[in-house]
TrEMBL record:
Domain DJ-1/PfpI as annotated: residue spans: 10-177
Top-rank taxon: Bacteria
Record organism: Sorangium cellulosum
Name of one Pfam family that matches: DJ-1_PfpI
The protein's name in its UniProt record: Permease
Amino acid sequence: MKERKKLAGKRIAALVADGFEQIELTVPMKALRAAGATVDVVSLRHGKIRGMNLHEPGARVRVDRTVGEADPAEYDGLLLPGGFINPDLLRQSEEARRFVRAFDDLRKPIATICHGPWVLASAELVSGRQLASWPGIRDDIVHAGGVWRDEEAVRDGNWLSSRGPQDLPAFVREMLDLFAETAPIHAPASPLAAESAPARTSPPLAALSATAFLPAPSTARKFLSTAATLGVGGLAVLALRRALA
């Protein structure tokens, strides 16, 4: 008899926007689907959104539903990947903030990594909680009333959080266990630590040196960037963008 998969019948929303850290979406999404879950990519717009490999453009992923179309009641859990750009866009969207709040109000599991907790902070959910994140946003969590922990995976009630791509093995393992639970998750939040872990004394070397290896932009792309910044020649810019795609 075929063994039932751990997350069979579960439906997970992955809330992401352009600029998501590619590995932080694709690796968890692959693991979720392998465990039997259905994963919908939910974003701010229709079409395809662009991933990033740190500072370098990555692949595009097709959006299944916009955040305005998706209903949190239809999902069993929420995945919030990071990246520098993605959560910055999401945290400015009232629809995205409302979407995230709905999951927490229903005590549904939320798994986030890297810069993803920015969205939780802007949704005003971090106060009194403890979580891990990319070290660079430690102060955002502390100023939002949370306790930052410098650990590979932190479970706090219905939340799971991790620092970044280096923690993906632990994050994915704990995420599968979290999403296997049935909401509402009434497990109490972990006892709040007395204080946050100290701030790092220097940024990660990989992030610090990444831009040194980016190729210089072509003349055409320099023109495109300048024209877009100045807001002139809209049709010409659009035509050039299509030609370069």
